[in-house]
Design a protein that fits this description.
Strand order of the largest sheet of chain B: 2-1-3-4-5
Largest sheet of chain B: 5 strands, parallel
Strand content of chain A: 5-15%
Oligomer: heterodimer
CATH class of one domain in chain A: Alpha Beta
Largest interface: A-B, 32 and 29 residues
Radius of gyration of chain A: 21 Å
CATH class of the largest domain in chain B: Alpha Beta
CATH architecture of the largest domain in chain B: 3-Layer(aba) Sandwich
Strand content of chain B: 5-15%
Strand order of the largest sheet of chain A: 5-6-7-8-9
Number of helices of chain B: 9
Number of helices of chain A: 16
Helix content of chain A: 40-55%
Order of helices and strands of chain B: HHHHEHEHEHEHEH
CATH superfamily of the largest domain in chain B: Cobalamin-binding domain
Distance between the termini of chain B: 15 Å
Order of helices and strands of chain A: HHHHEHEEHHHEHHEHEHEHEHHEH
Shape of chain B: globular
Largest sheet of chain A: 5 strands, parallel
């Protein structure tokens, strides 16, 4: 037990040092596994881990027992507890065993759940709009607000979510105690543009809003800034040691041209990151896909306020523009983890470490969240390569 | 570069001008198909600008909306058999994947470039691709995917079409298509860039 506690302390120290641009004993390994990869390694079907909370928690435990050298986990377990979403009749999600084959990944049905004419009510009082308009639209059980069924639906949803969060917290604590792993992130939030684009207006909707109602879009994003800061701190339960997870989507290249990006995407995202930083919270700027054209703008952020995560962004350029002021992480390609050979993975990792990790301030990770197509032997190869080439 | 005023207007995303020009020309007795050809010329220019990095997805989507609005005017005035296509493309998102944003952008660009597009929707089973390819006598089947975890099913879809004995090329599209994925899939063409679809269709159908 003492050894495990020591292990956790070392891993934490290593990770925090890298994020503070120092040189730890060696490059830290942060691998963000999806619940689907974890299920596969653990020998459960996706349906089992989506629906059975005990199997969900147990799956991560089995993975940690099976693969040596994992230093961090993202959280308690699989992000998705399908039972909760079934209880409220979620229309926007499809799950294995309900709508999909038992080993097909969950999917999000994107649509314009918020209409252009909803902007005024949203801006006036977003919480009321969400509770009275948005939730009923996306949940069959909440269809008719104020009815007995809808009231019970709200209670079921709130109770289910509270259960899930508590169980996830316990899961995380038990992994720490048993395996000495530390959290790669605490808390989650989004860019205000993404809150609207991913969840509310959908891609086509938001892109039309850029042209048809730009002022309302901007106002709605401004309304979201304090909300998204608060949401981040609340979901982190106030923790400021580990970074906040911020998956970034529609600000990637080539969704918007530069002047649109500067006008619409950046100001409120910057405000959220600066607001979190003022509260002592660093952001894991999880830049999915390509962000190369925007690096100079991102460099405006306060030193160390983010960890810039590279997926398909040009790593050379990211290193030149952001290196030395922000910790970088990434970017073993997910296609390499899925289709490559262990030797190829090792070569890629060595290349990364040689070029970008020499001065510290670097965390190794896959480009994006690791799905079930990744081969276990390639994950093992990645870890071995860091142990071999990543010692300072 | 487009020379026609209407083609230029759509390429420059001038919505109001596009709609008024369409109405003007219809009133002046210009054949609907001729007007559509001008719009398509402009759409091809939009695709080119996207490819060169001058245009972004926001502009592609906005352009698609303008085209849709123009077609509301034009479609009822088209007589059966009026439309001339450069070829037919069967398209769908592969089994296990329900994402359609990327596919819809490709559909818009292919239509814009003058192809008859048969859209099978999302979560399309291998036999559906084969069936549609057989019925439409197409030379090109396009498969879309977002999730890397549906790779095995995508491969099944590609193989089903390849083994059907039909003389059909297969194109796969999605953000994670790279050399490794191409090798694994056995597809003839692949790209992570939407505007490549029209170029590849042009190659298949021998268009200029």
């Amino acid at each position: 037990m003492a050894d495990v506690a020591k292990l956790a302390e070392e891993r934490k120290k290593r990770y925090l040092a890298a994020m503070n641009l120092e040189k730890p004993d060696r490059v830290p390994i942060r691998l963000n596994f999806s619940g689907e990869f974890i299920s596969k390694v653990a020998g459960y079907t996706f349906q089992e881990t989506y629906y059975d909370w005990n199997k969900n928690i147990d799956a991560t435990r089995r993975m940690l027992a099976k693969i040596d050298g994992l230093e961090m986990v993202m959280g308690g377990a699989n992000l998705w507890w399908a039972t909760l979403h079934d209880a409220v009749g979620a229309r926007y999600l499809k799950f294995a065993g309900r709508d999909l084959d038992e080993n097909t990944m969950f999917q999000y049905v994107e649509d314009a759940y918020m209409l252009p004419e909803d902007y005024d009510d949203f801006i006036e009082n977003p919480t009321e709009w969400v509770a009275t308009k948005f939730l009923p639209r996306i949940h069959a059980e909440l269809d008719e607000p104020g009815t007995y069924r809808a009231t019970v639906g709200l209670i079921k949803g709130a109770y289910g979510l509270a259960n899930q969060l508590a169980a996830g917290g316990q899961g995380m604590a038990s992994y720490q105690q048993e395996f000495g792993v530390v959290p790669s992130v605490t808390g989650v939030s989004k860019a205000p543009f993404d809150t609207l684009a991913d969840t509310l207006r959908g891609l086509s909707g938001i892109m039309m809003d850029l042209y048809r109602c730009p002022d309302k879009l901007k106002k709605a994003m401004e309304v979201l800034v304090p909300h998204n800061i608060f949401y981040g701190m609340a979901t982190a339960q106030g923790d400021t040691e580990y970074p906040l997870f911020m998956p970034l989507h529609r600000g990637a290249y080539p969704f918007m041209k530069m002047d649109q990006w500067v006008e619409f995407y950046w100001p409120t995202l910057k405000a959220v990151i600066e607001g979190l930083w003022a509260a002592g919270k660093r952001t894991l700027f999880y830049a999915e896909n390509i962000w190369t054209p925007y690096l100079e703008k991102i460099a405006e952020l306060p030193d160390k306020s983010i960890v810039f995560h590279v997926d398909q962004t040009d790593m050379d350029k990211a290193y030149k523009v952001l290196g030395g002021r922000f910790c970088l992480s990434g970017n073993v390609p997910n296609s390499l983890l899925a289709f490559g050979k262990p030797e190829e993975v090792k070569d890629y990792v060595k290349g990364l470490l040689d070029k970008y990790a020499r001065d510290g301030g670097f965390v190794i990770d896959a480009g994006a969240v690791i799905l079930d197509d990744a081969k276990e032997e390639n994950i093992v190869a990645l870890i071995e390569a860091v142990h071999q080439y990543g010692v300072y | 570069m487009a020379k026609d005023e209407l083609a230029l207007a759509i390429a420059n995303l001038e919505r109001d001008k596009v709609l008024s020009l369409v109405k003007e020309r219809l009133q002046a007795g210009v054949k609907p198909m001729e007007i559509i050809n001008s719009l398509q010329e402009g759409m091809v220019e939009v695709g080119n600008r996207f490819e060169k990095g001058e245009f972004f997805l926001s502009e592609l989507i906005f352009c698609g909306e303008i085209m849709k609005e123009a077609m509301v005017e034009l479609e009822p005035k088209l007589a059966a058999g009026d439309r001339e296509y450069r070829g037919t493309v069967v398209i769908g998102t592969v089994k296990g994947d329900i994402h359609d944003l990327g596919k819809n952008i490709v559909v818009m660009l292919l239509k814009g470039a003058g192809y008859n597009v048969v859209d099978l929707g999302v979560d399309v089973a291998p036999e559906k691709f084969v069936e549609a390819a057989r019925e439409t006598k197409t030379s090109l089947v396009a498969m879309s995917m977002l999730l890397t975890s549906v790779m095995d099913k995508m491969k099944e879809c590609v193989q089903a079409v390849k083994e059907s004995g039909l003389n059909v090329k297969v194109l796969i599209g999605g953000p994670i298509i790279d050399d490794k994925v191409m090798e694994f899939s056995g597809a003839d063409y692949g790209s992570a860039v939407a505007s490549d679809a029209a170029k590849i269709a042009g190659e298949v159908y021998g268009a200029a």
